[in-house]
Amino acid sequence: MSKHPFNEAHIIHELKHFLPAQQALKDFIHHNTLHAFQHMKFYDAIFKASKIFGFQVHLQLPEYRDMYTTGRIRKDILQMVISNKKDNTVVAEWIEKLISKEYNTINQPRIGELRKNWKDVYHLDLDNKVHPLLFRVLCAFLDQGIAIDSFPVVNQSFIDSIKEMEQNSFVSFFKTKQIKQKFLSGHYSIPELLKTIVGKEEYYEQYLFDQQFAHHGWSGFISAVEDNPQTLLDRKQITLKELLEFELLMELDALNHALGNKWQPLTTHVTVPPLDLFADVPKTELAEVIELWQDAFEWSYYDSVLKGILVSNEKRNSQFRVDTEQYSSTNADTSLQAIFCIDEREDSIRRHIEAVDKKAETFGAPGFFGVEFYFQQEGGKFYDKLCPAPVTPKYLIKESDAKSIREEELIYTKYTHGILSGFVLSIIFGFWAFVKKIQLLFHPKMSPAISNAYGHMDKHSLLTIENKSTSDIENGLQIGYTLDEMATRGEGFLRGIGLVNNFAPIVYFVAHGSSSANNPHHGAHDCGACSGRPGATNARVQSFILNHKRVRTILALKGIVIPDSTQFIGSMHDTAADVWNYYDEDVLSPENAKQHLINIQNFETALNLNAKERSRRFASINTKLELEQVRKAIHSRSVSLFEPRPELGHGTNTLAIIGRRQTSKGLFLDRRAFLNSYDYTTDPDGAILTAVMRPIGLVCGGINLEYYFSRVDNIKMGAGTKLPHNVMGLFGVANSSDGDLRPGLPWQMIEVHDPVRLLVIVEHQPDIVLKAINSSTEVFEWYKNEWVHMVALHPEEQQFYYFKDGVFTKYNPITDAGEIKTIHNMEEFLEGAKEMETNHIVHATEENLPVYLLD
Amino acid sequence: MNQLLILFIAVPLLAFLATLLWQNKSEKAIGKIVRFTKVFNILMTLSFFTWWLINGLEPIGFKVATLYETDRFVFAIQLYYDEITAVFSIVGSLLFFLVATFSKYYMHRDEGYKRFFNTILLFAVAYNFIILAGNFETLFIGWEIKGICSFILIAFYRNRYLPVKNAFKAVTNYRISDVALMLAMWMMHHLTHRNINFSQLEEAKDIAIAANQTSMAIFIVCMIILPATIKSAQFPFTSWLPRAMEGPTASSAIFYGSVSVHIGVFLLLRTHPFWEDMLWAKIAIIVIGATTAIVATLIARVQPTVKTQIAYSSAAQIGLMFIEVAVGFHWLVLIHFAGNAFLRTYQLLVSPSVLNYLVHHQYFHYVLPTQKTVSKLKASFYMLSIKEWNLDSMMFTYLWSPFKWLGKKLQFLESKVFIGMLTIAGLTLTVFGYTSRTSILTIGEVLPVVLMSIALAVILFAFAYRRSALKAWIYLLSAHFFIIAAVLFNTEHINLIEIIFYTSGVILAFSLGYYCLQKIKTVDNDISLNRFHGYIYEQNTTGFLFLVSAMGMLGFPLTAAFIGIDVLFTYVHSNQFVLIILMALCFVFIELSAFRILLRIFFGPHKKQYHPVAYRST
Question: What residues 311-330 of chain A have any CB closer than 8 A to a CB of chain B?
Fold first, then answer.
């Protein structure tokens, strides 16, 4: 890398590529933490990233070994993995290595090697001199509204703003006059500064990487703001280049101030040649050992799931034969259909609905329900994007006639920070705050301070879904969809999930959102397919479209006949509070309205059961309590300010099943599976499958890998424990006042997670699946490079095919059918489930239940 | 009824000791003990208050025990209860109750769950010691324990760099306040020649006036204002407070938002009878308070992070309380204290919500900013406030750098032979000093100063020393001998038992610390002090033992050395300013050196990266 002359633009581009890409926390979009390495095979990529940046990229060796001892990693699977990956003859030899050989597991990363010479040569802690003020200036500039006096210069770029301040002030951010003058004159450039500070050109790149990765949180955020300025409501103009310039100037300033003229460029003292940060990392035996352990860990679960699918299918088929002999028709009397997000947290509620109402049918689809648009809440000054992050919608849907009034929370008034107003308020408010505290501890309830999933849209408001005239445009966005646009979206959506006939009287769209208190990461609990926001609007919009008479006429022409008696209803499930609210219920026919009331009763029972199932992981709730009491406790968690785990988010996600509901219906998957409905019988050539598979890697794989990496290295790639977090400028969190921003997920979200890659199971013929995932290189990369596993379930053969090195080969689960137990009584089963003793990985994984058959 | 006051201290202390017996995962058991204590604390506080109310609001004193007594020195644990105690104890117990309840859920499954509640309980002990103290000695016990609790909670996430750095920053400030209090006690002793209770402060004042010893009184008042200023994060010591917000939000709330940071106000209220007639003292306090109120408010207004904003706002309000104390509005102070403590605790506890709330607010109320001309004054104040008025760097440059520089200049002291010689010399001098000092007392005042200077030099050497932790530790021991020798040569009569108090404690602490460091050395040959080793990650118990030994080494109320040090001070005469300053500096830097060893060897990012290790900047 150092062979070429220094190319500033190229290096900035490289830095941006490797820095964390997390945007402002208000809309949390999950992504692969090591996205920069995604062009490589998974294991090569993670070991390389580890060597460069010092990340821990897998569990620690003793942790794998402990899990082997507890049986969480199965011996037969380990043997299978070794014989597949190595050879049959060396199994014993490798097992010996895996279990007992001593390895030096200390990782010496490449990053930081050059810059540490400041300390070694000059005993100067340069970071200590530069970072605190640098972070504070950046935070003050980007601040969205914590400071009472915001940054005085607005609407200018970062460097220009600082320049204006420096020109205008008796005080300077620089300690030496000389550098202040240099800054004001503008006569500097990155290469020139580097020449003074670093010296030899071949070290520049290494120096800049060292420097920026010494605070990858701030650098990454600035890079993200540069690329997506809309991530901040109060937009700021800042670029990574400006940060580099300013930081180099501050370094020069600190060096001059601390050492006067008694210093020379860093590389005058460095004898080691520049390090190629991105040089290949030779594969070690330890790496091979880790690969085998990780594969064995993953397949110990996968294999039993695959076996479970086969067993349950077999069981259902034999039952089905009996049933068809007894009844002439089974499908005609479906009581209701409910379409959920593919989100793995909805696995359990779907299961409970189906258990409570045997005639209910559920579906899963990405939670934006096929309608992409910007949404503007009434009175809102901004648009919210309600579709997957990479999509840029052309439509705007506006809310009007909202009935509820947004409340304010007095305690956040800025007057408590004044001298005299603070004096008055600390006396008056202080005692009121005491009462509030008692209330929040002993009687938690919803308040404006709490993030409310239902706060994004008023229950009774109107939406501009149907476009009145194509000239009705606001800020370049068309307001609402035209009739044809609605029909296209309606048809596309229904075909995607294979719901093209046998419509039930009421079809529910069930979006999801999450209410939580005191949680800067609340966005990470909302719907990933809606750019980290609650998806209620999407549910309403798609319901409106499919209820639309003229849309139905068009759909009928295309072969999708929706009976007049069928009605669609939008609704939303609060995954933290286990509350389910419905929209536009007044459109229901009297008959359906009656049925709706019955359905609600069933849904409530299902929610109770769902709450009970979730409660087994919450130490503060006794799972054995009455259903209603558990439900109440779950609800109160979501509004408790003292509760750092209102829900566990996507923790434990492992599977993505794309197929008919019957492939997964007979299984207890412990809320670990993304479930995307897809009916191969309606799609013989795989055209629909191509569209269905497009977001799976990005959304499900992105979530899975973010959890994976935040789990294995919560300190460098995750955000650490959230208990000491300090909210910075309303866009991020950091530890303490002088700390780096902390991207990634906090400890409380990932502690139950088993760090295994996603297994995607698609119900179709392997060649069709291959065609579908090979439709674009971005999609294919996920599978080809093994960032997610892929298995095709051949529907006719009932045979699994595993995708490896570009081809599908047969895979036969080795788990014995008898090992998969059956749940006879769900409540008893949940009450008896084991709770983790500590959150150490070995204990935590024991809480994640194996696959069970449902009775 | 008076003896019931002991329960305020005894119950949390017993609870603290009890929680030590459990493992981290036994959350239920620890939770039960804490629940019992917090409820008991409230009931006790309220019922005692009611009883006191009915009995006519008269101040109550109660002597618990006399730990040591000679004809010239008394060390007694004395308790005292008046309206100031009443308010502080009620507010304290309510907040303790709230924060402990909050934390029970908040801290669930944290790897430091047990440590957190241990510390919170110990803090309750310290707090009650302080507010119930009937004399300086008793108050001082609480003062020191509170400092340690504070340190443990700031460095709660001890394998990251910043918490460790900021904990040390707080400790350096605290240590000055500790030593200042020691000096206040020392001078009070010389002024009154007896053990003064807080109820007798007016008498002490009268003695000073009668004996025409205003300079002594001035010294005492200065040594009271200084620790109050430091502990309440007043100007120019404010910058440690926002940096102390490193622990779990709940601990920041109770410590730095509320009860702990108001303890300086308490000290001023408690000692008010002594300085109420001194106009200059009142002016000084008003100036400190007013400056803090203005400066901290200016800084708070530009803070872009939520916890630092609350920290500075709280400091500003405490500044106002200083003014209120000085002008004598004591009931107002008490109300203001309660209100501010409740408010800031609440604001800190709900601080993570600010992101959701204010972003939402912005969503509905955002107005595109328009550029107004930035006046020179505004720009200057803004930038100055972003730089926190240089308070942090000033502390470092003017307070610590000179000593560090001096320590570095003294690095010639390093040699294997020298360290042995030094220790032997110190020991010999100690023995010799005890047996035959009278014969050479003619040298007069010079010898003690020389010996004390050697002690300080050795300590500063250890303070700046970069190589072996073990050596630095031994140097600290030898410094102790020189301190004793200096004191011995300064007096004609000394009780052997006092020396034994002192040395027994120090030697015990030294041996324990030596054992710990040796143990680390067997694991890792490199125990240098120029980097963080983070050994607590794999040597948890050793780290804890070394913390105990470091506390023992500086005369923390763990061993008899605590009394020993207090007694030794009395042998320095009130006019020996050089000697007392040297001695004070010795006690400041012994602690800092010992804690530096603790932090470098056991705290900070673990040096072996076979597991995730935090980046420095996090």
Answer: none
